[in-house]
Amino acid sequence: MLALARALNALALLGICGVLLVAFYWQLARGELPCPLCLQQRAAFLGCGLGFMLNVRFGSSEAHYGVVIVSALVGGAVAVRQVLLHIVPGTGSYGSALLGWHFYTWALVAFFLIALFAAALLFIEAQFAEGVSDWRPTATAQVLGWLFVLIVLGNAVSTLLECGFGPCPDNPTAYELLRK
Amino acid sequence: MIVLPMAVPFVVLVFAAIAAMMGFRKVAVWIWFIALAVTVYVFQSHITDPLKIAL
Predict the structure, then answer these.
(1) Minimum mean pLDDT among A3-17, A34-48, A93-107: which range?
(2) pLDDT digits (tens, 9 = 90+) for B1-39
(3) Which residue segment(s) compose the domain that A43 sits in?
(4) Does residue A14 surpass a pLDDT of 90?
(5) Would you call A132 and B14 a contact, using CB atoms and an 8 Å cutoff?
(6) By the CB < 8 Å criterion, does A16 face chain B?
(7) What number is the ipTM of this complex?
């Protein structure tokens, strides 16, 4: 059961990295800049990823799952707010759709599933027996961890380029720091 | 009200992730908490008119 918990945490971290890389693909290859609420959802995904990364890097702890669940709740609140913003007929939507749903709708579903997943993992009590201090991270854990650091760094640089040193426009069309 | 740059939560999260990879587990959790607080602050400062009317 301990190995299962480790594998599921690594898988969840990999999944979150995948979500953020897909978002990057849409931003860089398709030229769709993320809106302020989209960016806050990305930050929440990064928070969820950090919780799973702490479990992968140091071993499982209730506090790490807390990081995941609280981040998912905050991200879910932001996603709900964006869905509600566009739910009224005639108010339009933001960005293109993926498999029929907009990204903020997918994000809402993802945050719900992440919180549920983390809560379900808490039932594997054997993972907490080893304690965080005795843990030696595997090479896979190190690679996954540094991949996650790179994704966080990429998001920070991208957001800084897009929004500059102020709040982002509601419908960003260009990178603020790259304007001539 | 002070409007924080949107990039602040991400910059703070970079420090949290690096702290975690350097082996500072508790420091990483505390930095994440700061990032969370900043994200919530940025979120509430971006509430626009339609939501204000709805609330």
Answers:
(1) A93-107
(2) 777 888 899 999 999 999 999 989 999 999 999 999 998
(3) 2-178
(4) yes
(5) no
(6) no
(7) 0.87
B8 touches chain A (CB under 8 A): no
- For A152, the closest of B6, B17, B29 (CB atoms) is B17
Determine the pLDDT at residue A133: 66
Q: DSSP letters along chain A, please?
A: -HHHHHHHHHHHHHHHHHHHHHHHHHHHTS--PPPHHHHHHHHHHHHHHHHHHHHHHH---HHHHHHHHHHHHHHHHHHHHHHHHHHSTTS--SS-EETTEEHHHHHHHHHHHHHHHHHHHTT-GGGGSS-STT----HHHHHHHHHHHHHHHHHHHHHHHHHTTSPPPSS--S-GGG--
Q: Residue A19's domain is classified under what CATH number? A: 1.20.1550
